[in-house]
Predict the structure of DNA utilization protein GntX.
Amino acid sequence: MTCELCGRIQQGEWTLSDFFNFHQPQMLSICEVCRQQFTRITGPVCAECGCQSQISPCAECEIWLTAGYPAIHNQALFAYDEQMQQYFKQYKFQGGYHLRDVFQEMLAQRLVKVAPTMIVPIPITAETQNQRGFNQVSAWLEKCEINEILTCISTSKAVQSMKTRRERLQTTQPFCLVTENLDLTGQRICIVDDVYTTGRTLRHASSCLYESGATQICTVTLAR
Ligand SMILES: [Zn+2]
Ligand SMILES: [Zn+2]
């Protein structure tokens, strides 16, 4: 099998148990060498956004918290470096659906540790769904039980329904619930996204779920 990132031929290591159980050794779409090139975030980290930082909350998060946004306690697994950007490029923009297998196991393990009552992936717009064909976050989580309860507010619909320019500018919330009046009382929710950039997306998603009664919210992103 050829590594999807570097093109090297991967050698599968057969174990005795593979041999007796007649199954192929498990192989990911990328090789071990490429996997080693992703940078794990090991800490110390900012407890709010998950970036590598000596101070917590970091200066950026201090601004969000001072502005009154609820804490999201983001946990990020990897640095958003060149290797990760290359992976995202192929996975999201070059039809790399099969590359979802690279991080499935790691994300599932992290979510087991977080132990929320609901796992909610950040949704993609209908336009992205048409172009890409899949939600990159949900595809990582296909072995987990997820609740796709958030959806993107269609901009054209939202803009039409608002009368004044001022109203349009004030409304930045891009998400709403798929079902109106969904009761999330008592739910400890973990929102999952691909990368934490400014944190705006996760904070909007979080507000939307808190408004519907969620008791506790934290977030997990693959990269930061
Ligand atoms: Zn490789
Ligand atoms: Zn931070």
